[in-house]
């Protein structure tokens, strides 16, 4: 019984140590990000994050255009009368 209690106590101490030490290593990067996004450099805010934001923006625009084209094609196809076989 005491062996199980020791294991439980050790596990509890380990979990506390992991949580408390990880809190000390956190770095507050919010002021840096605020400074970056509040700069007036003529760039739209959705592209100020760098290359990743530019790639995500282009991917979103590409999917939007392709999706719109497919919807228009489907509507046109559905509006056509069916041929009798």
Automatic annotation (TrEMBL):
<keyword id="KW-0007">Acetylation</keyword>
<dbReference type="GO" id="GO:0016491">
    <property type="term" value="F:oxidoreductase activity"/>
</dbReference>
<keyword id="KW-0560">Oxidoreductase</keyword>
<dbReference type="GO" id="GO:0045277">
    <property type="term" value="C:respiratory chain complex IV"/>
</dbReference>
<keyword id="KW-0999">Mitochondrion inner membrane</keyword>
<keyword id="KW-1133">Transmembrane helix</keyword>
<keyword id="KW-0472">Membrane</keyword>
<dbReference type="Pfam" id="PF02238">
    <property type="entry name" value="COX7a"/>
</dbReference>
<dbReference type="GO" id="GO:0097250">
    <property type="term" value="P:mitochondrial respirasome assembly"/>
</dbReference>
<comment type="pathway">
    <text>Energy metabolism; oxidative phosphorylation.</text>
</comment>
<dbReference type="GO" id="GO:0006123">
    <property type="term" value="P:mitochondrial electron transport, cytochrome c to oxygen"/>
</dbReference>
<dbReference type="GO" id="GO:0002082">
    <property type="term" value="P:regulation of oxidative phosphorylation"/>
</dbReference>
<keyword id="KW-0496">Mitochondrion</keyword>
<dbReference type="InterPro" id="IPR039297">
    <property type="entry name" value="COX7a"/>
</dbReference>
<feature type="transmembrane region" description="Helical">
    <location>
        <begin position="55"/>
        <end position="76"/>
    </location>
</feature>
<keyword id="KW-0809">Transit peptide</keyword>
<protein>
    <recommendedName>
        <fullName>Cytochrome c oxidase subunit 7A2, mitochondrial</fullName>
    </recommendedName>
</protein>
<keyword id="KW-0812">Transmembrane</keyword>
<dbReference type="InterPro" id="IPR036539">
    <property type="entry name" value="Cyt_c_oxidase_su7a_sf"/>
</dbReference>
<dbReference type="GO" id="GO:0005743">
    <property type="term" value="C:mitochondrial inner membrane"/>
</dbReference>
<dbReference type="InterPro" id="IPR003177">
    <property type="entry name" value="Cytc_oxidase_su7a_met"/>
</dbReference>
<comment type="similarity">
    <text>Belongs to the cytochrome c oxidase VIIa family.</text>
</comment>
């Amino acid at each position: 019984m005491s062996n199980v209690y020791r294991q439980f106590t050790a596990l509890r101490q380990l979990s506390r140590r992991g949580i408390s030490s990880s809190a000390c290593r956190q770095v507050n990067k919010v002021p840096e990000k605020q400074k970056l996004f509040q700069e007036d450099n003529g760039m739209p805010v959705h592209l100020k994050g760098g290359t990743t934001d530019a790639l995500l923006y282009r991917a979103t625009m590409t999917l939007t255009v392709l999706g719109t084209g497919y919807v228009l094609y489907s509507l046109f196809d559905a509006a056509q009368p069916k041929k009798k076989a």
